[in-house]
Each structure stands twice: as C-alpha cells, then as structure tokens.
Amino acid sequence: MANQTPLKRLMAGKKGLTDLHIPTITEDAEDVVGMQGRIRLQKDDRIGPSQWMDKQRSSLQAYEYLCHIGEAKEWIEDCLQIEIDPITQLEESMRNGIILARLAGWFAPDVVRKIFTGSRLQFRHIDNINSFFEALNVVHLPKIFWFETTDLYDKKNIPKAIYCIHALSHLLARRNMAPTIKNLVGTLHFADDVLRATQRTLDNSGVKMPPFSALQVDLGQQLGADAAIMPYDSPTTPDLIKEGEESDPEEDLFPSVDREQAYWQDPNNLQKLVRCQAIVRNWLTRREYEEKRAMQQSTFFLSRLSGVQAHARGVLMRKNLEEKQFIYDQSEEWVTKLQAVVRRYLCRNRYHNTLAHYHANMDKVICVQSFMKNKLAGNAYRKLTTDNNPSLGTVKNFVHLLNDNDLDFDCDIALHEMRQQVVELIRENTHMDSLVSSLDSQIGLLLRNAITIDEVVKTTSAFKKKQQHRRMSELAASSSRTNPFSLTGIDKESARRLKLYQQMLYVLQTEPYYLARLLSMTGRHHIGEYASIKVIEQTVMTLFGYGSNKREEYLLINLCKSCIDEEMKHVKSTREFMCSNYTFMKLVVQTNRGAKERRFFRKLLRPLIQNIVDDEYLDLENDPVAIYHKKINDEESATGRSTLRSRAATCQDALKDKSVCDTFISHLRQLREMAGHFLDAILATVDDVPYGMRILARKLRLTLEEAFPNEPRKSILGVIGNFIYYRYLNPAIIAPEQYDIVDAIVLPVQRKNLAEIAKVLHKIASGEPFKEDGIFLAPLNDFVLQSTELFTEWLLELTNVEEPASYFDINELDDHTTTQKPSVIISPRELFHLHYVLDQNLADIDPEGGVLTQLIKNLGPSPYDPTLELPEALFSVNLSAPSDPLSEDASSRQRQVLTDAKRLVIYIIRIQSGANLKDILAAPVGEDEERLWLELKKSEFSTQGRTSEAVTAKRRYVKLGQNDPALDLESVNFYALKVITERLLHYLIRLELLADDGVYQSIINLIARDITGKNARRQQRDHELSQLRQTLAHLKEKQGYLLEKKDQYEGYLSSSMEVMATKRGKRPRYMMPFTRQYFHVRGLKKQGLEPKFGSFKYTAKQLFERGILVELDGIQPKHYDKISIILSMDHVNIITIEGSYSGWSITSVQVDLRYEELLQIQFEGQQTMKVLDGMVKVNVNLLIYLINKKFYA
C-alpha cells in the first residue's frame, strides 16, 4: 500500500465527498462511471495549460505535505500548550531547533539541559537539535525514522524531519505519553499560490516524500511483531481517504451475515475460537509483561523512578528534621544557658592563658609585630610595583610618599620657568634668524642691482641705448622665469623651494622612520620604475655625512635602529633574519670604513694578522685531498721524478696515507691555536668596540626577544653573534689591506689561512658546529661549542650599553642652540632623485600624512627626469626645523590638567574610602568628610613654616581653563572638590589621556607609577634642569651671535646704499638747457627745496613708453602727456614719488617708498605694484632700475 500512488487512493469516506476538499481536484468533482465514491480526475476549465492532470497530481502532493505539517504543528501545540508559527512558516522556524528542544524537554525533561534561543547564538542552535536526538534515544524511537542534522538546519530534507515528528507522536501515543496526532487531510484549505510555491520547493529540493500513510505499519514493524497489527482509526481523526478499491458494503451485507451465523453455530468452530482466544489472551499477557519490563529497564523509566525516590527521601528527611526541630525548640532555653556558661568559661580560660603567655614573651611579641609590619608593608609595596591595576586601598597606603618637600616644589617651579625661557629664546632666535635671512636676501638683491648699474655705466655711448633697452627687457621678464633646478636664485620661489628642501632633509635626518621605510622598500624592490637603489643608498650616506661627526653618527644610529624595527615587521623567524641581506646592513658596512673603525681594527687585529702574514711557512689547509696533491708536488719537485702515488685519490684514500694524516692533524691543531688567539683578542676588547656596533647589537637583541618571546636565548644570541662577526669583524680579517691593518701585500696562501681562521670564528659566533659544509673541520666542534659559551658571555657584556641620547649627550634642542646650522653637502641629482622617490612612494613612507607629506606637497613634483643630465656639482644645504619642538601647544596644557587631576584624586582618597574611585566620587558627603577636608586644607595650604610662598601657591591653586583664573582650593568644599575632579577625569577621558574603564582605574595606575618612580623622577628632573641650564646658555650665545650678525647686515646695507647715493650725488649732472628737467631743477633751487640726492621730472607718457608705468586708473593713454610724475630722494633709502594732474580730485599726490621695501617686493617676485593711493600701477623691476640709474649709479 505504501507504493500505491495517491491517485489510486482517492476513495471517499462514509460521508461521501462532503468532507473532502482538495483544491483543483474535489471542486465540482464527479464519480467514476460504474464506481460510486471514486473521484474522477477532470480538466479544470479555469486552468489553461494542457498538462492539467500532472498539475492536479502535483497539487495533491503539496496539499498532503502541508496537511502533514499542520498535523505536526497542532500536535506540538497540544503537547507544549503554546502557539507556534503558522504552517507556511513552520519549516523556517524549526531550523534553529528551539521548538524541538522544548518538545524534548516536555517528554524527556532530564535530557535537555539548556535551550539556546538567542539570535546571536546561531552556532549553538545545533545543540538544540542534538538535545532532541538525545530525547529520541531515551524513548527508543528507531533510527530509521530519524533525520540528519543538516536535513533540518541546512533545509536539505525537511519532509524527513516532519516524518520524524509524526513517528514520535505515534510512538508516544502508543505509550499514553502524548495525545494522538490528528489527521487533517481534507480539513485544511490553502491558497493556490501557496500550493504552487510548496510544490516548487519540493521539486527543487529533489527529495523523496516519506510514506506518511504507511507510518504506523512501518513503526510497528520496527518496534516488533506485536506492533505489526494494523493501526486503529482514532475516533478523533477519521480517515479521509481509504486504501484500495472496495465495493459498497451495503451490496452484500445480508448474505454475509447469514454465512457468519451458520459458521459460528458449528461446535468445532466455537471450540477453535475458545482455543484461539486463550492463545491470544496468553500472548497479550506476555506482551504486556514484556512491555512493562522493558519500560522499567529503560532510561526514561529509571530517570522518572529516581525522581520519585528522591521525592520520597525528601519527604522522610523533612519529617525527621521537623521532629528534631520540635525537640530543639522545646529545649532552646536551657541549651542556650548551658552554651553561654561553657563559652564564658572557655573564653576566660583562653584569655588568661594567652595574656600570661604574652607577658612571659613580651620581647618576642615586639619582634614578631615588627617583622609582620615590615612583611605586610613589603608585600603591599611589591603589589603596588608589580600589579598592572593596583587596588585603591594599596595606593592609599603609600600615597603619603608623594608629599613633596619644599625643595621638590622649588625644583619643579624652576624647571617650568626654565622651559618657558627656552621656548621664548628659541622663538626669539627663530624670528631673529628670519630677519637675518631677509637682510641677506636684500643685500643679495642690492648687489645684483649694483652690478646692473655698473654694467650700465661701463656701456659705451654708441651702444648705450641698445644695451639699456636690452637690459630693461630682461628685467621686465626676469620675474616670470623660474629655473626648476636653481635653489640659489635671489627670488621668492627659489628661496621657498630651498627652505622646503632644507626642512625636508632635516625631517629625514631627525625622523628616522621615514628613511627606514624607504630602505625597507628598496630591499624588497618596491620603489618604482625609475628609482635607483644605488643612488638612494649613496644619498642616505651623504645625508648623514657617513657619520663623520657626533650629531650625524647619533642620527645614523637612530636610523639603523628604526630600520631594525621596520624590517622585523616582515621577519617570521630568527633564521630568516640571519640569512637575509637587508639594506641597513650595507649602511653598517659603509660606516665601518671610517677612521675610528680603522683604528679599532688596527689595534685589535694588526699583531695577529701580521704574524700570519710574516710566517711564510704557515699553511692551514684542511682538505685531505689538497694536502695529498701538495705532497705529490713536493715529492716530484724534490726528486725530479714522477710519483708512484695515484693522483685520483678520494678523501678516505688520502687519509690512509700516514704523512697526509699527520699533516692534516697538525693543520687542525694550528688552526685551533690561531683561532683561539683571535678569539682571546676579541673577548678582551669589550670597551674598545665602537659604540655604534654595541648599541645596534643591543637594539637587535631587544627587538628579537620582543618579536620571538618563545625563541631560546641561545638562538637569539647566535643571530647577534653572526651579525657582529660576519658584518663587522669578518671583512677586516679576510681583507686586512682594505682597512689599513697591514701594509704588505697579502699572498693567496696567507689569505687562504685567514679565510680558514675566519670560518672557525664565524661558527663560534653563530653557535653552530661544522656539518656537511665543513666536514673536514668537524673535529673542531668541541672547541667551537666551548668557545661559543665564552663568545655568548662577551655578547651579553657587549650589549650592556647606554642609550644614544645619553652617550652622545644630545637632546632635541641642540640644533636650536648652535650658532652654525647643521648642513648637508649634496648634489642636485641626489637631492632631486630623493625628492622623486619620496613623492612616488609617499603613501607607503608616510601613511599617516605627517609633516613629510606636507613638505612634499608644498614642493610639488620633483624636477628629476631619468632622461636628463642633472648637475653633479656638490653644494651645501643648511638644514632647518619645520616647527618649534617645544611650542606651548595643547599637549602641555593637557599634561598640566592630568597632573592637577592626580593631585585632586589624592586629596579625595585621603579623606574618603571605597572599593574604587567611581564609588568614592558617587558616595555622599557628610560632616566627617567636610571636617577632614578642612583639616587637610590647613595642613596643605598653610604658609607657616614654609620657605617659599610659591610652594603654597602651587598646591593651593588649580587652573581649569586656558583663559580662566586659577581656582583657589581653599574656598572649595569637599563636595565641590569631588565634582571638579570628576569633570576633569571626564575631560581627560575625552582627550584619550585616560582609559574609559568605568571606575577610573587608569588614573590610580598613574598615581601608583608616580609613587614607585619618585626617585627616578627626581633624577630625571635634575638631569633635565642641567640640560636646560646648558641649553639656555647656548641659546643666549646664539642670540648674541644673531644680533651681531643682524647689526652687521643692517649696517652694511645702509652704508652701501649711502655710499652709492653719496657718490652719485657728488657727481655733476649735465642737463640740457631749456628742457623740462632744467626748469624743474631751477624752480626747486629758487624755492630752496632741491633734494639732497636729486629730483627728476617725467611725464606719464615718457614712463609709459619706457615700460615703467603700466597704467593709470581711469585715464586714457592719450592724456598721459598731461600728467607729471616726479621722483626725488632727500634721504638715503627713501624715494619720494609725486604725481599731479588737473583731472584728479586732489591736484597733487605724493608717497614715500623705502628702497628696502622695493627690494622685498622684487624678491617676492611681484611684477607690478600700485603707488599714489592706487591710481598708478608701475613695473617693479623697471622702477628699481630707474631709481638705481638716477640715484645710485
């Protein structure tokens, strides 16, 4: 029956077709001809397509499947007494397993421990489905009815999950553990689009529909032979469709009754019936017994039985306790009296014994108390220093250590004032330096104009007009031309570009991470197509002057340290670092060729290498075959006859020769002895090793330990030993003549000996014995491993060195204190190529968009072009910082707010206690806290006994705002103090100076660090005071130097202009009689107004034709001959321009111009300017040319 198609089972029930409704099938259905009750499939006129029969069959399958889902839904709701999602949404809602887990908890509560319902716990929803499986296992549902987890969770076969729920319902109903599932086929109605969508989903999934109609039969077969009986029809779930093609029961009703009565009247049949009934009753009894026994042995029954037993034990135990409690209640009074008497006796006896013991051992008690106090204090302080987040109580116990004395306050005040003085002096010197640079530019412009005047004077009269015309044309166009390769021109654009290049080189020197990223990119060849790695390396060494002086060596060391940090980002193991050849290592090699390193190598290696070079008989060959061949050559040379030995000998054959073996052993002994001498010399030179190599070795060790914390220390020291020896010492040993260690020529045999010694030393430094690559030197492995221990100790001592800033005694202010600016000697090709590389890789070199990005953007594109030949001549570039390093910005103000906040927090925790600072700030303030705050203010802010009122002012006043007056804490109560402190803490959290941990633990940690580091802070403060005093002295020296230089420049400028003007004034001027200039000068003489250095009168037309006058505001050029313009100079450097025109509102307009202002305008590249109240526009270059010609030539 399970294999019959649904169309063969469309038999109506007893009520005919009245209760049957299947969309598109039972609507207006007719019976099959000759077969009453059988539905005839017919074409629905409302359906257009010709495949109407297939569609009706498909709709029937989807309809039955939806009805089975509805049956499972109602059964689950009956069990759980809750309402779940509708039928069309039940498939999706069941995927998370929540409904199944709740159902499992209903019929097997001991199995389900937790149901995961959260939407964010999707990865735990599978646990809900697993709980349902455990419950199925408890009730012994056969595995054939189970579904897979992916069938439901991934929607691979949801009909199988619905089939499992149906099987479970029948199983539980057979055991009277759950209601019977209903048959809803024919009672539910679904829309056509729902049926089509369901059928489409079933078709797409490709799964086979489980046999729901044969479920009870299959379940019975799986449970046993007793379950093979045909399932009964529940009165609450009448069948809608009957299986098979049966005839009408009314057709042969009466004949069948007659036959049955005749059959049962036969006594033999009755006897057989009795025997069958007995057999059946016996079989039913046994089956019932077996079911009960199986139920009692099942996990489900045992779990329920355990619960009943627990309840029973609980009832008995409670009854027993109630009886005992009743007895105790009745005896409570006299038991209490008895206990009190006994306790009183025992307490008095114990107290007297203890007191007597203390009196007898009073000295020991005092010692123990002192020991415990010290122990507890030590533990508390250790906890304060080691804990990352010390508790508030621990900090409060030691907060008294932060009470500074008057000396501390005086030093803090002096340090603050000295910093202010340094900042002011740096700003003054910077401003003075800019003035000196401006004066230098003016002197350059003056000299250039003076040369122009001399050229005009030297011009002969024949070519005078022609040369003047050419010069004026050049001046008119000079400001519009800018040479992109020129950085020394006396114009604003050249000065601007030169200043930007100066700042760029300074930033690259002082901010090493920029060049470190660039060098790291060159090592990986990620710098662009036209960039040259060789030029970059040469430019970097040029930028740092090959570390020739203290400042450049300090900066070069910082660059190498930054390179180590940058390269370590790409290193995955210590072995990879050892085998790689990084760009910064080339810098180390280049640095090693300096004079200082040569002196070190000469002192260390000269005696050892000289002995090897002088010993012409020394041979450290360790290849047995080579020794064998040498023996043959020596024998043939001595005897003059061919040897009888075989020339094709292997290593084993050569060692079988006794003379070869003896020579081989002798060479190994000599090699070990020589290597030992070299090693002893190296180990004795810790203090003589140049500082640069020591600090780089220290940096490399710390970086490797941080990057590879699980790496053995021996392995890390092997990497450092390989770096120190292979990159630093080895080149000097194998090529001593290149480092001026020896003067003689090193022969090939001697160089081979040095190479063999260097090979042994390399193995000692790296801590690796000889293997396949040096099989002949394997006998020296014991010596190598023993020497490695000594070399490791030497490395540890070598890396114990102070930081560069302390060693070189250099700080960030040194460049601002020297009278001579730091400079770099570089070629234009190197400079422009560096600019080009930085511009092309700016996103990788400065991803944060810092100061270098701003400088490169201001410079614009680089003039570098690989196809052009740029100048190779070197020129000096004075470097300058782009900003003030100690400017009073917001950061200093923020640090002061943080200091004040810590001080206020200390006041608060000294008065009030709590679990954390947040609880203290939120706690109410009582009279006791206000009284303690008043006492604290008297002790903190009192001036009695103080040596300085500044100390009291520093403690008493707090500055909250930049422009607000300082707050007097004397006038603040304790509640207001807490409010102010909390606002300061919120402000610091917004500035990210404190972490937002919810309880203000970060400021407690800062206070703890202040307590533990107070002594170090005092030492640092004293060091800063010493440095600032020295810095102030140097700044004052530089200020005097700049003032003197400024006075010299100003004096030179004014004296030069006065000498030029005076010479021109003494020189007699010839004037054509009866000209405009003639009458102008004569009129001035009559009035006694003739200027000291001359006066010249022109018409606007004359100046316009010469190009000096560009335009007149509101006047046509045809009227220019009616406008008079007079240029005169009565005082040096002050030129008076006067214009008169009858058409102006003011008949005469006059203006005084300083010659320095005109030179500054010319320097800035401004071609024109307006004079005479903006009515006249003139050409600046030609105006200066005219002034020079008339007043200074």
From TrEMBL:
It comes from the Eukaryota. One of its GO terms (cellular component) is mitotic actomyosin contractile ring. Residues 538-766 form the Ras-GAP domain. PROSITE patterns: CH, IQ, RAS_GTPASE_ACTIV_1, RAS_GTPASE_ACTIV_2. CDD domains: CH_IQGAP. GO terms for biological process: mitotic actomyosin contractile ring assembly actin filament organization. GO terms for molecular function: actin filament binding; calmodulin binding; GTPase activator activity. InterPro entries: CH_dom (IPR001715), CH_dom_sf (IPR036872), IQ_motif_EF-hand-BS (IPR000048), RasGAP_C (IPR000593), RasGAP_CS (IPR023152), RasGAP_dom (IPR001936), Rho_GTPase_activation_prot (IPR008936). Residues 66-172 form the Calponin-homology (CH) domain. This is Ras GTPase-activating-like protein IQGAP1.
